[in-house]
Give the backbone structure.
Amino acid sequence: MKEVILLLADIVNELHDALIALFDLVGFELSDKDLHFWIMGAIGIVTFFVVHFFFKLLEKVKWNITIFSFIYTFTVMIVLVFAIEIQQAITNRGNMEFADAVIGLWGFIVFFFVYAVIGLLIYFIRRQKQKRDHNKNQDPRTTSRMDRYK
């Protein structure tokens, strides 16, 4: 994992230098803070539009709050897992490995899957019980033929 982080850091550093050179070539002299302002602002607003579009689609789906909660929790878990791996590298307590981060995220996904299966079972059991109770409470003498087949 350390190698992956170092590779990503090298890529970001090269991109940083290329952007500074490009802006200098065009005639904009940007400080490091100016570059961060513009680039992170642009990345942030593009990410916002993509996420907003995706969430507007999810808004129409049943159990959308559960889906939103999963997405948010998964995002927090990604940050937490990588923070723990970086902390291990800084303090030399444990090995900093990408596989550790991945397996930690798989742990959350498996636990969530078990939760979802249990939740779906409870949902379908309740739904069947409500249908039985509804059918039991209908008096065939007071309901029309059409109402009985709904």
Residues 98-137 form the longest helix (40 residues).
